[in-house]
Amino acid sequence: MIYLLIFLAKVIEISLGTLRMIVVANGKKWIGAFLQLAIALVWIFSTGAVLIGINEDWLKIGVFAIGSFVGSYVGCYIEEKLAMGSNLITCITDSKNKKMLEDLRNAGYAVTVMQGCGMESNKEIYLIMTPRKKRHNAVLIIKKHDQNCMIVSENAVSVNGGHTP
Questions:
Q1: How far is CA 45 from CA 9, 52, 65, 94, 132, in A?
Q2: pLDDT in tens, 38-72
Q3: DSSP structure string for the chain
């Protein structure tokens, strides 16, 4: 029974740690602080349980390590499903594509258009600020209109102004 408790405690601790990093990176300091409190409490339990009788029961160390491994995976999985934060999508396309721009804006995306100069031709550059949860749909709209365009997505934090969907 102690092995299961150690394993579950480590999965919870590491998963919460992964989520804590994400919420702090998204500017949610208070949530991050409360998560750290929970992490510390779980860590004290799991570490204490491993250290009691460690010389006689080395299996606790293995369960502790495996719990850390699984917790890391679970934390990443949860973070991926929550998809917190925003992305800035940069789309560089060869031609003026009014229909792509129209479809993006009709879907609720804020799009800024700039002119660019590539090696061989002029380009249009679309800057699209979107919640991470909606990034996939924006990319589908872009690819529907231009399979060969360059699409770059990066994490972004809005500092001032603009339209965010």
A1: 8, 11, 15, 58, 35
A2: 999 999 999 998 888 888 888 999 999 999 999 99
A3: -HHHHHHHHHHHHHHHHHHHHHHHHTT-HHHHHHHHHHHHHHHHHHHHHHHTTTTT-THHHHHHHHHHHHHHHHHHHHHHHH--SEEEEEEEESS--HHHHHHHHHTT-EEEEEEEE-SSSEEEEEEEEEEGGGHHHHHHHHHHH-TTSEEEEEEE---S-S---
Find the angle CA(9)-CA(12)-CA(16) to the nearest 5 degrees.
Answer: 140
How much is the pLDDT for 70? 95
CA gap 14, 78 in Å, rounded: 12
Closest CA to 65 of 45, 48, 52, 46: 46
Q: Whole-structure pTM over 0.85, yes or no? A: no
